[in-house]
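Lab notebook, bench 4. The sequencing result for the construct came back, and we need a structural model before the next group meeting so we can plan mutations. Quick request posted to the team channel:

Model the 3D structure of this chain.
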Amino acid sequence: MSQVSTPPVTGARFDSGNGLVRLHKVLISILLLGLVAAAPARAQLTIEIVGGSGSAIPIAIVPFENESNWPLGITGIVGADLVLSGLFRQVDTAGVAPRPVRAEDVRAADWRARGADAVVVGSMRPTADGRVEVRFALVDAIKQMQLATVTYTVTPAQFRATAHRIADVIYEKLTGDKGVFSTRIAYITKQGARYELHVADADGGNPQAIVTSNEPLLSPAWSPDGTRIAYVSLENKKPVVYVQNLDTGRRQVLANFRGSNSAPAWSPDGRRLIVTLTKDGGSQLFLINADGTGVTRLLSSPGIDTEASFMPDGQSVLFTSDRGGTPQIYRLRLASNTVERLTFEGGHNVSPRALPDGKGFVFVRREGGRFAICIQDFATRQVQVLTQGPLDESPSVAPNARLIIYAAQQGGRGILAGVSSDGRVKQRLVSPAADVREPAWGPLPR
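Done. Here's the predicted structure in C-alpha cell form:
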C-alpha cells in the first residue's frame, strides 16, 4: 500500500491574522495533518454522554414477551437510543411481577412508585412465514393513558432497524419532536495510509465502508432522499467531486474541472448541487445538475466564496466569504441574486449549515485560537456558543434540528462529537481503531 501524499489543494485561502487557513473546506490542512496512523478499522463508533439535559424523562422499558428467544432483542437498543439522546433515563424494571405485556397490563401507580413517568411494554411472536411480529405500547404513567400502540412484522435481520423506529415513536410522543434514531450518518476515517467513507446508523452501529482510497476523502454530503452521497476525493492528485449511489454502488464524476473542485451540497429537491470551483480563477460558487451537466456560476466576487449550503426552502444559499476582509457568513437569495452578510461578531466565522426548520444556522467561530460550534437565530441574530473547542469543526445538523454532530479532537486524534441545539446535551462518538472526521447527518427515512 502506498504512502499517503497530501497534494496542495488549489483554491481558497483566508488570511485570518494567525496564519493562512487553506480551504476547499475550512481547516482541511488541519484535517490532513492531524490524522495519525491507527489500527485496522471497521470498528463501531461508541457514543458516550458527557453532559445531560438535567431534566431527563424517567422511562421504564420492560423486556418484551418472548424477546429472549432471539439473540438480538429489541428493548436493549430502544433503551440505548433514548438514553444516548440525553433526554431520557431508564428506570429499573427488575423484580416486576407479573411483567406487563400490553398497555392494559400496566399498573400506573406501581410504576410511579418506581419513579417512572412513562412505561414501554411489548411482545415478540413468530409468524408462519418465518418473520416476527413485534408489538409495543407506550403508556403515560402520570396521566394513566396510552400514548401509542404499533405493530411491525419483520425479519430478525430487521430487529435493529425496528428498534430504532420504536425509539423514534417514543421520542416523538414524549418530546413533541421527530426522532432521528432511524437516520444514518456518514463520516471519514483514516487508518495508516487508508481513507474510508463510512455510513452507519445514527447510534454508530452497523458501519459500512462505501469508498476506500489511499488518498484523502473529504466533505461527504447526503442527497435529500438518502440514496446518494457526494464527496471529494484527491485520488487524481487534485480535488474532484464524485457522487456515490448507495443502492447500486455506482460512482459518477460530478465535477472535475481545471483546478480545485470541492464542497458539494445538495439542493432540497435533489436535482442540483452547489460546489466550489476554481476553474475560472479564484474560489467561486457554481450550481451543477446532479448528472454533472448545466454548470452555472452564481456570483462574481473578488473574494473567496466557498462552503455553500442550501436553506431548506431552496430559495437561498448560505456560504463563507472573505469579501469583507475576514471570513464571514453570507446569504445569497437566488431569485434576486442579492447577498446579505449574516455574521458580524468575531473575525473568523465559517462553515454555515442551516437548521432544518429554517430558523437559524450553525457555524464555526474562531476566537483566541480556539474553534467552537455556534448557532445563530435569523430573527434575533443572537449567537449562542455551543462548544468550547479547541478544534471543533465540520458541523452537521440532525433532521429534527435538535442535535449537531461535528468533528473534534481527543488525545491528539480525530473523533466525532455531538451537542444539542440548546447546548445542554453533549456526546462523544469515538472509534477505538481510527481517526474519524467530516461527519454528515443523513435525512429522515422515507
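The longest helix spans residues 159-175.
Will bring this to the meeting.
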